[in-house]
Design a protein that fits this description.
heterodimer, A: mainly alpha, two-stranded antiparallel ribbon, about 70% helix, elongated, B: about 230 residues, outer membrane lipoprotein receptor (LolB), chain A, 4 helices, about 45% strand, globular
């Protein structure tokens, strides 16, 4: 247990010392600040375009443009892109060491390969948690600070759900938890790919390609794709959005969470199976 | 014993039918005319097609001639016109022509039906139809066809929390025609939602907003600032 803890600390040290680990934080900060700035300047005009058909019939009273709405818009934009930032780090965890040859050195230490992989996985998970917390802090915290509180209007393709301010905070916490699970699926997937190759570019590029492909399939309303969609992990990654529905489709969310956890377990199982039997030649 | 009651009822009935439509409307206005201002608690419920909006509580303020405001701490959808729009429109009996078109029962209450046609073309109201309580001379239902908001149906009920002496109901149900709210998937970013709409499905719907009033406070000289200040 103590050796595992030491290994995790070492892996975290490695992550921190790599400049690419900060690309995710920098990108999130830049995107969030840019979106907040744009919405602060022009947000009302953007929103009027959405609600103009309703305002022909009704007067809409209340603070429509508020921190909750801004955070929700940011999450919609970012949670599709964020897996790529995670893959930059987790796709490099094994293959990066294979490329430099240090994996052989680590494997000679008196720790099992399973412990090495587990330590890397835990370090990757901690990195993911930190990214999510950072996103929560600037997307939710800063948006509330700049734009203030208010009811959240959630747009759906066939309607609109308006959630009362007091009913929103816990939904964001739950959404961040589901986002963490989604990012862990991507992290575990790229870690699995990382076990199979000796260069870090391969797992990162493959992970990106798979996410883009699956997302494109998920976007189209074509009958043949409808049969495939339930089997794509990207379909379940965006289930965080359903937490903002009213009433909440609990069964659908639970089903997706279970599928995400099964994906994590499956990718992790393959990673352990392969890595503990791998013939390390570099 | 029965004879005086029947005689009284007959007298009321005769007097209702004997009065001209404008006289009836003037009696309705007389009650509401006693209200210079009021405030009350309000509970709003919404039933709007493709829009989910939870009920909310707030405060409502009115001041003559047509200042009206509902203050809530959340987002609400309200009809474009204030609920007393029709009564304000009826205040000047020379500005419209009123026609008696029959009688109908609204629930258990007998009502006289009057149609109102504004005289000037510049009026937002195109046609108004009013169901007026024969005994209490209050508007039970009104159907307004307006230039700006189409047709609006307003049902008033006068229960325990109402101020019937001032023609103030304790419940108003506003029914409006509205288009179903729809946004493109790319704007809503609602990728997972499978559309269930069919080509033949009507794009029109009916929205209902229920306003329940309680704890009326009448003619307490409301300051104008309540109609302009921000909700905290």
């Amino acid at each position: 247990m103590e050796s595992l803890l030491t290994l995790v600390q070492l892996e975290l040290y490695k992550i921190v010392t790599k400049p690419r680990s900060f690309i995710g934080f920098a990108a999130i900060t830049a995107i969030v600040l840019l979106v907040q700035f744009a919405l602060y300047i022009d947000g009302k005009t953007y929103w009027e375009f959405v609600t103009q058909s309703l305002e022909q019939t009704f007067t809409i009273n209340g603070t429509i443009f508020n921190g909750n709405l801004v955070c929700f818009i940011i999450l919609q934009m970012l949670l599709v892109q964020m897996p790529l930032m995670i893959a930059l780090v987790t796709g490099d965890l094994i293959s990066g060491e294979s490329a430099t040859g240090t994996i052989r050195l680590i494997a000679t230490k008196p720790v099992s390969r399973a412990q090495i992989l587990l330590a890397k996985y835990i370090a990757g998970a901690i990195y993911t948690v930190l990214i999510i917390l950072w996103l929560g802090l600037i997307a939710y915290g800063l948006s509330l600070l700049i734009f203030g509180h208010g009811d959240l209007i959630v747009l759906k393709s066939d309607g609109m759900v308006i959630l009362r301010d007091a009913d929103v905070a816990w939904r964001f916490v739950a959404a961040f938890f589901v986002a963490f699970l989604s990012l862990m699926v991507v992290g575990t997937f790229s870690l699995m790919l990382s076990c199979f190759t000796d260069n870090s570019i391969g797992p990162i590029i493959i992970t990106m390609a798979v996410i883009i492909l699956f997302t494109i399939i998920g976007t189209f309303d074509i009958p043949i794709f409808d049969r495939i969609k339930p089997f794509l992990f990207t379909t379940h990654m965006i289930v965080w959005r359903n937490i903002f529905d009213n009433p909440i489709p609990k069964e659908q969310i639970l089903q997706s969470v279970i599928i995400l956890i099964l994906h994590i377990a499956g990718f992790l199982g393959i990673s352990f199976y392969h890595f503990t039997r791998k013939d390390i030649q570099n | 014993m029965k004879t005086p009651i029947i005689t009284a009822l007959l007298a009321i009935s005769i007097s209702a039918s004997a009065q001209s439509p404008k006289q009836i409307l003037a009696q309705v206005n007389e009650k509401f005319g006693k209200v210079n201002d009021y405030s009350a608690n309000i509970h709003l419920q919404f039933d709007l097609p493709s829009i989910h909006l939870d009920p909310i509580d707030g405060k409502v303020f009115f001041k003559k001639p047509a200042k009206f405001r509902i203050k809530t701490k959340g987002i609400v959808f309200l009809p474009k016109q204030n609920p007393y729009y029709s009564l304000s429109a009826l205040a000047d009996t020379n500005s419209y022509t009123a026609v008696y078109t029959g009688e109908e029962k609204i629930g258990t209450v007998n009502a006289v039906i009057l149609q109102v046609l504004p005289n000037g073309g510049e009026n937002d109201l195109i046609l108004g139809k009013f169901w007026i309580d024969k005994v209490n001379r209050v508007v039970l239902r009104s159907q307004l066809t307006t230039k700006s908001s189409g047709t609006i149906l307003l049902d008033n009920s006068y229960g325990a929390n109402s101020m019937i002496a001032y023609a103030l109901p304790d419940q108003m149900t506003v029914t409006v025609d509205m288009a179903k709210f729809k946004v493109p998937k790319m704007i809503s970013a609602d990728i997972n939602n499978k559309s269930t709409h069919t080509a033949n499905e009507s794009k029109k719907g009916t929205g209902v907003i229920k306003l329940s009033y309680s704890a009326y406070s009448i003619n307490k000289k409301l300051p104008d600032s309540v109609f302009t200040e921000e909700v905290k």
